[in-house]
Amino acid sequence: xxxxxxIEAAEVRVIGHDGEQIGVLKRHEAIAxxxxxxxxxxxxxxxxxxxxxxxMDYGKYKYDQSKKANEAxxxxxxxxxxxxxxxxxxxxxxxxxxxRNVRKFLSEGNKVKVSLRFRGREMxxxxxxxxxxxxxxxxxxxxxxxxxxxxxxGRQMIMIINPLKK
Length: 166
Fold this sequence. Notes:
The chain has helices at residues 27-36, 58-75, 92-107, 126-139; strands at 11-15, 21-26, 40-45, 52-56, 81-87, 111-117, 144-153, 156-163. It has 166 residues and is of the alpha/beta class.
């Protein structure tokens, strides 16, 4: 954002501090006009022909911009990826506890990565692990939809569940 003497264009279109169009002026004339009212000349649209500048208080402008940025930051929700780990041999009660966590994460609007690790001879029972992950997806279908269905990555089977839009 160019201000006062940082503006490099020879001619600029000037908008007054009260919003009315002043017209196309030479840079030094525009800066003088801004200084007459005790304000700054700020380039608003550098790509226009000629560039558009506005007469305003630069400090107040920066303050308003930072306020808008902070307000926008407050309103945004960062989606996190939460992970729940299960095993192919996880019993029903333990699976219910994991499902409760998955439901909580999805209701908060976070993605959930469900990972199932196979150890040793458990690699022979990948079908059982896939059934377990599909069961989890079926149990939480009212809160989330699988973005990535269960697939093997080394000794792990991974499924990612996206929350449904509210």
